[in-house]
Amino acid sequence: MPEMATILQQAQRSLIIARKDIRIYYSKGPVIIFGVLFPVFLFLSFTIGRQLAIDFMIPGLLGMILFFTATSISPIVLPWEAQARTLERLISCPVRIETIIIGDILASFAFGVGISLVPIILGLFLGITISNPIIFALAVILAAFCFASLGNVFSIPPTNLPATVNMIASVVKFPVVFISGIFIPLDQLPAWGQAIAYISPLTYFTDIARGCIQGRGHLPLAVDFAVLISFTALFVLVSTKLHQRTMPRRI
Amino acid sequence: MNDDIAIQVVNLTKYYDELLAVDHINFTIRKGEFFGFLGPNGAGKTTTVRILTGVIKADGGSVSILGYKAGNLKAKQIAGVVPEMANAYADLSGWDNLMLMSELYGIPPSEARERGARLLQDMGLFPRKNNLVKTYSKGMKQRLILCLALVSDPEVLFLDEPTSGLDVQSARLIKDLLQNLNAKGKTIFLTTHDMDEANQLCERVAIINQGKIVAIDAPERLRIATSGIHSVEVSFDNMVSPEVLANIPGVNTVRKLGDKYRLYTANPGKLVVSLVNYSSSHGLEVVSLNILVPSLEDAFVALTEKGAKHA
User: Fold this and answer.
1) Which residue from A minimizes the CA distance to B47?
2) What is the dihedral angle through the alpha carbons of B10, B15, B21, B26, rounded to the nearest 10 degrees?
């Protein structure tokens, strides 16, 4: 069992790695613009002309933006580092593999939370009200961490080609968006559609957001939070354990 | 464990699928020793360094660094590493790279700034410290990598081909710094292809071939141990084909080196007479003629070729 001092030291080094990732990989104009524009255009292509209310649109748009941004860069940080030959240097530092992975997840989490402010501010400007801001903020934070961890799971295969990792990520990300109650609310889905929706973590965040903004969540809040926490724990566990096996094969 | 030992490698083994990359190797390095690790490409040098620095795990055997198991946090904390073909972060400045590394080693900021500035000055990088690394030349990048390895003031330094492909000035600067560090008592583990470098810097060298250690000794002793191999270097005023020289009695092997030939023989005195006779009988003038004692390179070639023949 690691000592508390070691855990704190490694947590601090995860933050240092996260700050490094944000400076190098996230703080670039094209990354930020693409992080906002891509989900916005994808969302608009499915909603324009359908006469939808703004309080219906904003939770879906927020869910999409949070999901796409938090999973956009984290899968390709390790392939980039391996390609740029900076990874071996990083692994030889006094940090554990889990420390590097948590650092990468934290950077992606911060990016997701930061970009998600765009649709929230847009919604508030257009007149939506958030009935329970604390629950809503907790849901954004938890979902961003959950999706960032999922993004890190995509980079487990030890390929150093970002295009390959992106392809793996896209195969999962696009179907998830269509089954998560973004375009059609959960209570309007048939039973088989709901059964599929329940395997997506995005479903539970969208449900909380609809509850807070539209006042009509489908599941109890406690269930939404419990499932999101479970998905997060699963993704973090899978990511840290499997990266320990595959990380040395990237070198 | 003996207090005088810096690195102890016992029965170290590593497989890549079916390939036995490191084959039950053993060696011990004293504190303050400058140790060279030589071998042809694919011999297992980089794999060994990566196990020693905790980047990959061994399949068998054990490694301890100043008493700590290789790969654990304490072993990493006391080691500085210059990996083969590593890069600093190109989108950060040299200074920011140094500060990032010092944070990852837990160096207090004031100490990191003071040590970082001194290292950059020693390596001739201080005037460019705020420029992005992507604007640095290859030599500057490699000097910065060495600074990154030294910012934690490590007790043990691992360097994998640190001067490979560098300009003369950068290579000289790095070698001088390594000698100074060793004089201050740092233990240095150097992997290199450059026999002159190993000869100049290392107190002892290990030669690894096909995953096995084939020799460990002081460079001078290795050289003497292979003293059965002599050579004569000769150049003529006209071209002579290597096949013709190979037929001169006493010549074992011929190597062309620019405008010269190196002829390997068991009896250099007799070969000199034969060469003089050959040149006068064929109307050639000898431009230069030198009897060479075996070099570390000769010892390396002899030891690794012997290994290859036995494989």
Assistant:
1) A251
2) 10
Domain identity same for B12 and B119: yes
What's the whole-number mean pLDDT along residues A78-83?
Answer: 92
Size of interface A-B (CB pairs under 8 A): 71
For residue B121, name the pLDDT band (cuts at 50, 70, 90): very high
* Closest Cβ–Cβ partner in A20, A94, A251 for B105: A94
Q: How confident is the model at residue B140 (pLDDT cuts 50, 70, 90)?
A: very high
- Each residue's pLDDT tens digit, A34-50: 777 777 787 777 777 77
**Both tokens of residue A202?**
């995005």
DSSP symbol at A12: H
CATH value at residue B17:
3.40.50.300
- CA-based torsion, A89, A92, A98, A103: positive or negative: negative
ipTM for this model: 0.89
In a domain, B311, yes or no: no
Which site among B15, B56, B73, B189 would you substitute to test the A interface, given the most A Cβ atoms closer than 10 Å to its Cβ? Answer: B73
Q: Which structural domain, as residue segments, surrounds residue A163?
A: 4-250
Mean pLDDT of B244-267: 87
Minimum CA–CA partner of A7 in chain B: B73
Question: Residues B78-114: pLDDT tens digits?
Answer: 999 999 888 899 999 999 999 999 999 999 999 999 9
CB atoms within 10 A of CB B187: 25
Closest residue in A to B85 (Cα) is A85
Name the residue among B76, B85, B92 with its Cβ closest to that of A24.
B92
Which whole-number Å values give the CA distances from B164 to B81, B121, B168, in the listed order?
Answer: 15, 22, 11
A147: distance to nearest CA of chain B, Å? Answer: 26
Provide the domain count of chain B.
Answer: 2
Mean pLDDT of B109-125: 95
Residue-by-residue DSSP string for B245-274: HHTSTTEEEEEEETTEEEEEES-HHHHHHH
User: Residue B23 above 80 pLDDT?
Assistant: yes
Note whether B162 and B202 are same-domain residues: yes
Name the domain boundary from B220, B252, B283: B220
The residue segments making up the domain with residue B256 are 230-293
Contact A183, A57 (CB under 8 A): no
Report the C-alpha gap between B156 and B79 in whole angstroms: 5
Enter the pTM of the model: 0.86
Q: Enumerate the residues of chain A whose CB falls inside 8 A of the CB of residue B79.
A: 92
